[in-house]
Amino acid sequence: MGPVDEGEKGTGGAAEGPGRGSDFLQLDIGDAPAGGKAEWLARRLRQAIADGRLAVDSRLPPTRVLAAELRVSRGVVTEAYRRLAEDGHVQGRRRGGTVVVAAPSPLPAPPPAGASRPPVPAAAGDAVTPAALFPGSPGAEIFEALRDVRARVDFTPGRPDLAAFPRASWLRAERAVLAELSAEHLGYGDPRGAPQLRRAVAGWLARGRGIRVGPEEVLIVAGTAQALTLLNPVLLADGIDRVAVEDPGSLGTRQHLLHGGLATPPVPVDEDGVRVGELRRTGARAALLTPAHQFPTGVVTSGGRRRELLRWAGDGGLIVEDDYDAEHRYDRPPVPALRALLADRVCYAGSVSKLLAPALRIGWLVPPPRYRDALVEAKRFTDLGNAVLPQLVLARLMDSGELERHLRQLRARHRRRRDAMIGAIAEHLPGAVVHGAAAGLHLTVTYPPEVPDTALAAAALARGVKCQPLSWHRQLPGRPGLVLGYAATPAGAIAEGVAALGAALRELA
Ligand SMILES: Cc1ncc(COP(=O)(O)O)c(C=O)c1O
């Protein structure tokens, strides 16, 4: 039977991941020669089957989905699948979609085995004034303090649309997992994570981020936060006591490094990404970076800068790659993770916090081989491993294709909200500049006149709108701005919230 295209319903026919759309194998149609797209696609798929990114038994995305993703006609994808079927690599399975049945060459063998700032006053209900919530130097409690404050419109960055959490799918998957679960599964699990989830994550990373790893290289953790907490002592034991960070860069992740006793020298970010010359000048042997979508500026590390970074890493540097929201992209082709290019020098961290919900506290760490054992030990002594049941449910959602379907829905919804925010900014914040809106769940806006962003955020909160000042995420001086999450807010509320920001700015100017 030739390739078929009925993979929309996860029928569980294929053992490995479903290989549906989103960021599929990092394919960029811009690389295809005009007039030769089907052959180009077939060649890229053959390569992926040969090198194990598309494992035997995994399902190719439905042709409709991949065609939409690549912005080609469906005929191009159908023709590519037909060629693969012709040379025996894939087979159509009616309701199971098109499945990889043979690799052209053997699959690769798995590789061998500081003090935080002073705290802000605790949020005590209405007693805390908006100004007190936006100090110039926020402490570790700041995020909880701000979360406790109710606001009419919440632009806190870093949250997907939590109202869209796929409750029905989760329940269905949990019921199925419980029905199949043996009693042993309810005992202590593998501290590295449930094998099912490590396998599913390896497939997810191969398809979506271009990372080729075996399940034994994946460590399941309680989010990027725990990944950093586990990593800190391992780095210190390796003689690394400073981790350079982007500037501006995430206050939250920097706080985790500081808490672990690591210094965080800042390195400026420009429109190509982090400045590698300045990174070298810090003398730090490690850097925490967000290359796919820099937090908070949204810059995508350019090709030239990626090569410079890889040279720095090749000279002995370690990149801690925080891939916090790379799945959410709108107007740009996917960029592969740095971990896909330099496995020995990149420690990769990701999580479901932006994909499903931060409350799940599930993430993954793919460390360089030399740190793996120490990290497994750190995880074992921290908590003996993540809770097993949610891991099995997540593995099932990944394997059945439901997670990718959810991601596609989220993307469409988030894109509408992003567009609504950009439109509202043009209307209510004239002269403001929007940064980094091509991907992610937030954008950053800088504005004239340059009133302090902490004052603007406080004035906005007084008008019922919550957001974060850009200066919180800076160690070096720089322009004021606001970091505005749009993904969790409906378009109408976005317009209302941005109008209030405009009014707050006019009041302060
Ligand atoms: C830059 C950055 N990295 C990582 C995370 C996610 O952390 P976790 O996976 O622990 O939820 C966030 C959350 O907002 C973030 O902003």
From TrEMBL:
InterPro entries: Aminotransferase_I/II_large, HTH_trans_reg/aminotransferase, PyrdxlP-dep_Trfase, PyrdxlP-dep_Trfase_major, Tscrpt_reg_HTH_GntR, WH-like_DNA-bd_sf, WH_DNA-bd_sf
Name of one Pfam family that matches: GntR
SUPFAM superfamilies membership: PLP-dependent transferases (SSF53383), Winged helix' DNA-binding domain (SSF46785)
Domain HTH gntR-type: 35-103
Record's keyword annotation contains DNA-binding: yes
Annotated Gly residues bias: 10-20
Keyword Transcription regulation: yes
CDD domains, alphabetized: AAT_like, WHTH_GntR
Region entry Disordered, spans: 1-29
One term of GO molecular function: transaminase activity
Keywords: Aminotransferase, DNA-binding, Pyridoxal phosphate, Transcription, Transcription regulation, Transferase
PANTHER family per UniProt: HTH-TYPE TRANSCRIPTIONAL REGULATORY PROTEIN GABR
Similarity annotation: In the C-terminal section; belongs to the class-I pyridoxal-phosphate-dependent aminotransferase family.
Identification of the protein by name: PLP-dependent aminotransferase family protein
